[in-house]
Amino acid sequence: MRHRNSVFHDVLKLVPWTTFDKLVEEHGTDALVRRFTTRQQFIALLFGQLSGAASIRDLEAMMESHRGRLYHSGVAGLKRSTFADANRLRDAGVFSKLFETLLGQMHRGFRRKMGDAVRLIDSTGLRLSGVGSQWARFSSHVCGAKAHVVYDPDLAKPIYHSVTAANVNDISAAKEMPVEAGATYVFDLGYYDYAWWAKLDAVGCRIVTRFKDNTPLIEAREQPAPVGATVLGDRIGFLPGRQARNRRNPMGEAVREIVVRTPTGKRLRLLTNDLDAEAQEIADLYKRRWQIELYFRVMKQTLKITKFFGRSENAVRIQIAVALIAYLLLRALQDVCERQIGFLETVRLVRANLMHRKDPTRLRSPPPPKPLDSRQLELCWVNT
To answer: Which of 26, 29, 39, 166 has the fewest other C-beta atoms within 10 Å?
Structure first.
């Protein structure tokens, strides 16, 4: 009988292990390590993500029950204390860099002009509690972290992430993000900062966001709005000279206000530095921002990004990086599946068959044969 690897073993083949080993050596995370290596730590974390383990005890029990097959994947068992120490102490940069490498490999066949690139920016809150979460204390009784993400809606993948305590403003994290000249950046009111907008505008980026209700448009000049569309108004003008009492506005170029009506009847004032595009195009770009919200929902519902094996700052950074890696691996698996299936169904099938010896591209059973109609039954009877 032909040998067949487990689904988990085949998923691990998608990981660029040569790059991983170089990162481990570069960051020195295996220095003086005798048994539980960084590779074994990563495999255990990835197994926890794909299997849906709810705690370290849960993960330990699941890995022990599959000890025989996991042995061939490079990790035979798990000791809770050793695993917790590794998550607390080892450099999270290994896993973040691995995410970037994997992302670059998956984008290699996707080429387009930077002017066509759309980047959605947002963050999601992560509740923390228990020992080790004091670094993310938000109030006297609540601890929490934030995952800040730049998302490409055309690729349906995140292209950058960072983790901060929950009391760090979104705009503070955004100022640390790399900026791609010429790309379109879409974001909400959490990134309301004239100086940062001026930085994006200076490198040729297109900005699409919302006006605050109390922000006036100075020297506004009306433009004709398309008839019968969701666009209610279109004006060009200037931002106020100061964002706050003591903060001078460095963005002196003209901006554009487009007023739209949502399907629920709400009126939104959109802001952009693109003075030439169709108003409906700007409205559609802002509407795409909803895709990053759907991405956060998928991450929280299908992968372990709400409950953590460790709650120290380093452990949370490592686990979020591994969750994003798991997301990319599942997307890659979905792309090569024999039959086209949705992402959520891919996650469920991988989880249900993780340690089964199956072809990971054929996890879905073939559809049952259609029943024969009366004519076909008659022909079968004649032929017999």
So the answer is: 26
Are 272 and 335 in a shared domain?
Answer: no
Pairing of strands 184-186, 118-128: parallel
Q: How does pLDDT run across 262-303, given as a tens digit for each residue?
A: 888 889 999 999 999 999 999 999 999 999 999 998 888 777
Separation CA 305–CA 361 (nearest Å): 26
* pLDDT tens per residue across span 152-173: 998 888 999 999 988 899 999 9
Per the structure, the complete domain to which residue 216 belongs is given by 188-288
Rounded to whole angstroms, the Cα distance separating 175 from 156 reads 23
- Over the stretch 86-122, which tens digit does the pLDDT of each residue have? 999 999 999 999 999 998 887 665 555 545 789 999 9
Asked whether residue 284 falls in the same domain as residue 323, the answer is no
Same structural domain, 328 and 281: no
Query: 3-class DSSP state for residue 91?
Result: coil
What the block records as the tokens of 208 is: 């699409």
Write down the pLDDT at residue 357.
85
User: Does 383 fall in a domain?
Assistant: no
Q: Report the b/e string of 85-116 with b at 16+ CB within 10 A.
A: ebbeebbbebbbbbbebbbeebeeeeeeeeee
- Residue 23, in any domain of the structure: yes
Query: How far is residue 175's CA from residue 200's CA, in Å, rounded to a whole number?
Result: 10
Around Cβ 381, how many Cβ atoms within 10 Å? 8
Parallel, antiparallel, or unpaired: how do β-strands 184-186 and 242-244 relate? unpaired
Give the chain's domain count: 2
In a domain, 277, yes or no: yes
* Rounded (10°) CA dihedral 17, 22, 24, 27: -150
Query: What's the Cα-to-Cα distance from 362 to each of 2, 135, 166, 222, 345, rounded to whole Å?
Result: 16, 44, 41, 57, 13
